[in-house]
Amino acid sequence: MERKTLETEVKIELKFAEPRGFCFGVRRAISTLEESLARFGRVYALGSPIHNSQEINRLRTLGLVVAESPLDVPSKAAVFIRAHGVSGEVIEQLAAKGSRIIDGTCPFVRKAQEKAAFLSREGYMVLILGDKDHPEVQAIRQFAGGSVSVVDPTDVDLPAAPGISRVGIVSQTTQRRETLSLLVSNVTRVTDEVRVFNTICGATAARQESVERLAGSVDGIIVIGGKNSANTAKLVEISEKTGTPTIWIENDGDLESGWFRGKRTIGIAAGASTPDWLVHKLENRLASAKSAREDGWEDD
Ligand code: SF4
To answer: What total number of domains does the chain contain?
Structure first.
């Protein structure tokens, strides 16, 4: 956990959740996208590449165009595939249009796709632990093909279908390890053979644990991240559950001076889709606060 003390009339100490902000896969994808924008000038993305409107606006100024489907992309255009991937069917549609495909699929998501396809080829009925409506899960499902079913994390108490003796299991990368263990244990009770690939990525859990740790040592927590970001919403929920006063902002302009009343130590956490520049801007805004008194804080 990093510490930083700001020189204000009354000192506000800032503590930063660690890790915070972009995960490996999102950082890699955004940097690939930036390189492509510099090279091609205009790049189409299928769906928003990241759940952060400030970052999307910045990328739009560099030439990003967000399209909803391959049908909305002109032929021979440069097309970016976001970190949680797309199905092989979409790739085929793009290839048919002569698209220049820039693949930002996170290697951990790719691993889940490949393991699901492997299990299916080997004749296992494939169970995917995850949210059936999430694009990452839909892509994994499509890669698996064959006999495949998605198990919702809130209902893992499902026995395999009668007569199914070989079950293969993979997970959406953001699921909890405890839930995967529970699913494996439940399936083991009703099938002869279970083959499991743990395709969970630790990035989400690490950010959640970091905000929980931070909550114990600060007077309040600022969580910065998109209001449409599920992983940021989860950080807010965890922080609130600890009882530590928590505020969710999208950028430094959302700060309310009254919230700082009586607080000396402030924790800052950021979702996996929050870029560093937004966190730095927040930090600078707090650093430029002229005073932090019992009645709140004031700008210069
Ligand atoms: S959360 Fe994990 S799997 Fe998802 S993009 Fe980030 S690093 Fe990749």
So the answer is: 3
Same domain, 18 and 69: no
pLDDT digits (tens, 9 = 90+) for 171-196: 999 888 899 999 999 999 888 899 99
Name the most confidently modeled range: 65-79, 224-238, 282-296. 65-79
The finding on whether 112 has its CB within 6 A of some atom of ligand 1 is no
Position 291 pLDDT exceeds 80: no
DSSP H stretches of helix in 146-202: 177-188
Active-site choice (18, 55, 136, 237): 136
Ligand 1 atom closest to residue 107's alpha carbon, by position in its atom list: 8
Q: Last residue of some domain: 154, 169, 196?
A: 196
Are 87 and 33 contained in the same domain? yes
Q: Whose CA is nearest to atom 5 of ligand 1?
A: 25
Look up the domain containing 144 and give its range. Answer: 108-196
| The last residue of a domain, from among 50, 82, 106 | 106
The rounded distance, in Å, linking the Cα atoms of 207 and 139 is 25
Q: Give me ligand 1 centre to Cα 106, in Å.
A: 6
Q: What does the alpha-carbon distance between residue 157 and residue 136 come to, in Å, rounded to a whole number? A: 23
Same domain? 141 vs 122? yes
What is the whole-number distance in angstroms between the Cα of residue 291 and the centre of ligand 1?
39
CATH of the domain at 93: 3.40.50.11270
Long-range contacts of range 71-75, CB-CB < 8 Å, 24 or more positions apart?
A: 72/44, 73/44, 73/46, 73/97, 73/99, 74/44, 75/99
- The yes-or-no verdict on residue 299 having pLDDT over 70 is no
Closest residue by Cα to atom 8, ligand 1, is 25
Query: Which residue's C-alpha comes closest to atom 7 of ligand 1?
Result: 25
Go through the chain and tell me how many residues it has: 300
Q: Is 136 a catalytic residue?
A: yes
- What pLDDT, on the 0 to 100 scale, is given for residue 287? 82
Confidence (pTM): 0.85
